[in-house]
UniProtKB/TrEMBL annotation:
PROSITE patterns per record: CYTOCHROME_P450
Keywords of the record: Heme, Iron, Metal-binding, Monooxygenase, Oxidoreductase
Cofactors, names only: heme
Name of the protein described by the UniProt record: Cytochrome P450
InterPro entries: Cyt_P450, Cyt_P450_CS, Cyt_P450_E_grp-IV, Cyt_P450_sf
Residues binding heme: 387
Length: 448
């Protein structure tokens, strides 16, 4: 229906009745306008879609109430620490791959879509909260299930009339599990804060200074300063933003590489070439330009949704063509320009080296990196709310893939089923199977 609208209305906005009422679909050429105009509100979108005033929804609540703390922490503290967290990401990836895929040189099968979010939860928790919580099975479970339970509960709640919601939300399937995740998550985070505080107090008594922990617990606190804030809510919000988004990306990339063993070989060769000469230096991932191009192409070709930049209008807005969008309208910006033949030659073809070629044109080096957001690449949104975690996500996915490709061979166990859509969202096939086997690696990744 959405693609019919794109064809029929030729670059003009149109309306589709979606799972949450009417959605105004704005073609990609409106991304700049929507992304730079505060009247298109991100907070009101969260408010409308994710019920921040109900118990259990402390994650979305924190992403509104503590938006500033969260975004500043990710933009400054996390992104600026990327060079320092490579060692931790490598260490955790090595252990996780050993635990999950083992060392068997014979072919085995796995349903990777079910494994990717837990894998990303483990790697991300190592960076966000340190090694102790990265080994805490209940926290790792919450980091995955909190988002799933929230999506289930929210989708159902949206279908219940506003006036009834305060009375029935407790009975909506998924809500109990969501609330339990939030309660257990809060206990785990409080216990970790308490553990750190007691070490600090012990050290103080002994006259020893305690080294600052460089992770999100400390960063949120530093950014908040004297301001009171909900540390556990921010952690839940971080899992909501970071785990499934990155997990799906890793899955989609691995399925594409498993589908085409030639690309797998080429991407692996680049990894080995760069790592053999440079090791895990700050610049190594930047030098893997085919890998970057391949990931951006996966994001263009296999988006998680046909839309990006979901907003709700805070007041009525007159568009340049005179159309008036009323207050309270749900806006979604289409990723239609991902298929724009003016910018992308043969857009219907998946070309892993597409962006590598585009970057090699004069003056284009920085315009087509995976993390670069433009109206032609909306996978990370655009404008004021463009994903602040994309620099971390990019490094995390690349590091995970380096280990996964250099240590293992991958291929499809069965042909992929056609993509399955729920509204504008692409839902991955959880049962899709990959085959993998341990290979003899060209370089020892742990001693680089
Ligand atoms: C491949 C992985 C990821 C994808 C595809 C992704 C995608 C997105 C998108 C589409 C948006 C909305 C942008 C807009 O509406 O303009 C967004 C926002 C956001 N993302 Fe990501 N994201 C990813 C990973 C992460 C990670 C790892 C983090 C945290 C470390 C993160 C934190 C956030 C936050 C906090 C926001 C809200 C920004 C705001 O309120 O201004 N994301 N992301």
């Amino acid at each position: 229906m959405i693609w019919e609208g794109v064809k029929k209305f030729q670059g003009k906005p149109f309306q589709v009745i979606g799972v949450n009422g009417p959605d105004l679909m704005f073609p990609g050429r409106y991304a700049k306008m929507v992304g730079g105009d505060k009247r298109f509100s991100f907070d009101e979108f969260i408010e409308k879609d994710f019920f921040p005033s109900y118990p259990g929804f402390e994650g979305p609540k924190a992403s509104i109430v503590h938006a500033n703390i969260m975004v500043t922490t990710i933009r400054t503290k996390l992104t600026q620490s990327l060079g320092h967290v490579t060692g931790d990401l490598c260490d955790e990836t090595e252990k996780a791959l050993h635990d999950v895929f083992g060392e068997n040189p014979d072919w085995q099968e796995c349903a990777f879509n079910k494994l990717s979010a837990p894998l990303v939860a483990r790697l991300s928790t190592r960076v966000f909260l340190g090694p102790i919580l990265a080994a805490n099975q209940r926290w790792l479970e919450i980091a995955v299930s909190y988002t799933i339970n929230m999506m289930i509960t929210s989708r159902l709640l949206r279908q219940i009339p506003h006036a009834l919601r305060p009375f029935v939300y407790r009975f909506v399937p998924g809500w109990r599990a969501l609330r339990k995740d939030a309660i257990d998550g809060r206990k785990i985070i409080s216990a970790e804060i308490e553990r750190r505080r007691s070490i600090w107090e012990e050290n103080k008594k002994l006259g020893i200074s305690t080294a600052k922990t460089a992770d999100s617990l400390g960063w949120f606190q530093e950014v908040a300063g004297e301001q009171q804030f909900d540390q556990a809510g921010c952690q839940l919000s971080l899992t909501f933003a970071a785990i499934h988004t990155t997990g799906q990306m890793l899955s989609k990339a691995l399925f594409r590489l498993a589908e085409n063993v030639e690309w797998q070989k080429e991407v692996r060769e680049e990894m080995v070439r760069v790592l053999r000469t440079d090791g895990w230096q700050k610049t190594s991932l930047y030098k893997m330009k085919l890998l970057d191009s391949f990931l951006k192409e996966v994001h263009r070709f296999d988006p998680g949704s046909t839309t990006s930049m979901h907003r709700v209008t805070k007041e009525s807005v007159a568009l340049p063509d005179g159309t008036v969008v009323p207050k309270g309208a749900q806006i979604k910006v289409l990723q239609d320009l991902h298929m724009d033949p003016v910018v992308y030659s043969n857009p219907e073809v998946f070309d892993p080296a597409r962006y590598l070629k585009m970057r090699s044109q004069p003056g284009q080096e920085n315009n087509w990196q995976w993390i670069t957001v433009t109206e032609h690449s909306l996978g990370f949104g655009y404008g004021k709310h463009a994903c602040p975690g994309r620099f971390f996500a990019s490094n995390e996915v690349k590091i995970a893939l380096c280990w996964m490709l250099i240590k293992y061979d991958w291929e499809l166990a069965e042909p992929l089923k056609p993509k399955w859509w729920l509204g504008s969202e692409m839902i991955p096939d959880a049962a899709a199977k990959l085959r993998y086997r341990r290979r003899e690696e060209e370089i020892d990744l742990s001693t680089l």
